[in-house]
Structures are given as C-alpha cells and as structure tokens.
Amino acid sequence: MIKTLALQYLDQHFRQQDLQLLDQTIVLKGVWPRRGDSGSLQLRRRYRFEFTSTGEERYKGMIELSGRRLQRIELEPHLMPDTQDRLH
Questions:
Q1: By the 8 A CB rule, do 8 and 21 touch?
Q2: Rg of the chain on CA atoms, in Å
Q3: Pick from 20, 26, 47, 86: CA 20 to 30 A from residue 7's CA?
Q4: Concatenated DSSP letters of 38-83
Q5: CA 31 to CA 4: how far, in whole Å?
Q6: Which residues is 52 bridged to in the sheet?
Q7: Rounded distance, CA 6 to CA 26, Å?
Q8: Whole-model pTM?
C-alpha cells in the first residue's frame, strides 16, 4: 500500500519534470520508526529507483515517506530531454 503511494508520488513528480521511471520498480532500502508532527509513532521508508530523462541514460534516485506523507525525492544530476548538454 505505501509502496503504491510512493509510486504515485513519483509518477506525479516525473510528469512535471518530463522524466520516466525505469522498470516501474522501486526497492525498499530502509524502514525506521519516527515521531510524527502529532507525536504519534510513524514508519519512515526509503525507496531507491532508476529513471531516465533521455531514454538512453540511467540515473539513480531516492524517495522517502514518513507514514503516508512525502518527505523528499532526490535525483542524481541528469541531462534534460530538451537540451542534451545541460544538467539538471
């Protein structure tokens, strides 16, 4: 269920950035307990994935959720599809 939510967050982010998730796969890399804003215990999950901006190169990324809330998405520097020589 949380993995599906993480995929939805990535899909939305990648549509905005004109990127593509490769293999439609994310891999759980860590789970640990954390106190939420209300003081309740939540699980923080970190997933790794690969994406492309040009269809040729593979780049790595990470998404982290605390409970059901998106905490952050990190992407390796990558070429933008409209300008092959510019890093984003």
A1: no
A2: 14
A3: 86
A4: TS-EEEEEEEEEEEESSSS--EEEEEEEETTEEEEEEE---EETTE
A5: 16
A6: 20
A7: 9
A8: 0.86
